Amino acid sequence: MFSKIMNIAASAMAANRMRINTISSNIANSETTRTAEGGPYKRRDVVLAATDVATKTFGDALDKAALQGVKVVKVVTDNQPPRQVYDPGHPDANAEGMVAMPNINTVTEMVNLMTASQSYKAAAEIVGITKDLSAALRRVSQG
User: Fold this and answer.
1) DSSP the chain
2) Who is most buried in 41, 90, 91, 140, counting CB within 10 A?
3) What percent of the chain has pLDDT over 70?
4) What are the φ and ψ backbone dihedral angles of 65, each rounded to 5 degrees?
5) Per-residue pLDDT at 34
6) Residue 64 has pLDDT above 90, yes or no
7) What is the pTM of this model?
8) Which residues, including other chains, have CB under 8 Å from residue 30's CB and lie 6 or more apart?
9) Taking the chain, what is the end-to-end CA distance rounded to the nearest angstrom?
10) How far apart are CA 5 and CA 68, in angstroms?
11) Taking the alpha carbons of 65, 118, 126, 123 in that order, is the dihedral positive or negative?
12) What angle, 0 to 180 degrees and rounded to 10, lies between the N-to-C axes of helices 106-142 and 2-28?
């Protein structure tokens, strides 16, 4: 049972680490007007899904719905149009002085970053508590 809990928490930590990295990239590129693909940086978002936990016994099958991990399904690109900002002195300004900027709201990204960080921290705490509980049960069973 403890290994399942550890696997679930580890999957949550890995998924949230990917979310943190993606959100950080969005924030870092919130003013990037030129990319290799052409045009401004496009916001990215991580899509998560529950994963099945392998079942070996009937009891495991009953607990399957309650014991699921998390996995990254894909990273999607936001195809919202860029924001247009008037900045005639910018090297990427068009003839009217408008610059296509990434459609990234840094406040929203910061809230997303805090949520992903808290989720990562909660999963890490579960790992610690599970390790402590497992060690305590081993001590009790030994003597």
Assistant:
1) -HHHHHHHHHHHHHHHHHHHHHHHHHHHTTT----TTSSS---EEEEEEEEPPP--SHHHHHHTTT--EEEEEEEEE--PPPEEEE-TTSTT--TTSEEEE----HHHHHHHHHHHHHHHHHHHHHHHHHHHHHHHHHHHHH-
2) 41
3) 87
4) -65, -35
5) 95
6) no
7) 0.83
8) 41, 102, 104, 106, 109
9) 22
10) 9
11) positive
12) 160
Q: Phi and psi (nearest 5°) for 120?
A: -65, -45
What's the token pair of residue 128?
């610690």
CA atoms within 13 A on the CB side of 16: 20
Lookup: tokens for 117: 């960080």
- The answer to which of 7-21, 40-54, 109-123 has the lowest mean pLDDT is 40-54
CB atoms within 10 A of CB 46: 19
